[in-house]
Amino acid sequence: MNWLYLITRWLHVTAAVVGLGGIFFMALVLVPVLRQAPDAGPVAEAARQRFKRLAHAAIGLLLLTGFYNYLVVAAPKVATASFRGTYHQVMGIKILLSLALFTISILLLKPVPALHAQRARWLTINAVLGLIILLLAAYLRRLWA
Fold this sequence. Notes:
The chain is mainly α. It is 88% helix and 0% strand. The longest helix is centred in the middle third of the chain and has 38 residues, at 41-78.
């Protein structure tokens, strides 16, 4: 096995776990706690600032390692495989959903009061997107088996 591929795959999965874990933490723990806090503004702002750096790093790693894994590793192997059409269709959907998730995440990390009024809804949408992306990734991985 190619060590560079192993490292980029590990970085990709780790970044996804950290990013999606943060989304679930915010949706299931932080937002409900903030609703009960008498003065949640400073805590919400501190959490947003701290998670922003982590989320941006995760998104950057996912983009870099995802494109490497797709263009250098997967695409050449799939080029002659019988399932190449299915693979590319599912991968295209996975990439589009990922870009939607990244966009929502970046917008939620900006200090936009109108967007934060609907924070729970957008976090739920992102959590569902993340789960769908994980399902598609698992499906793509099973095509190789």
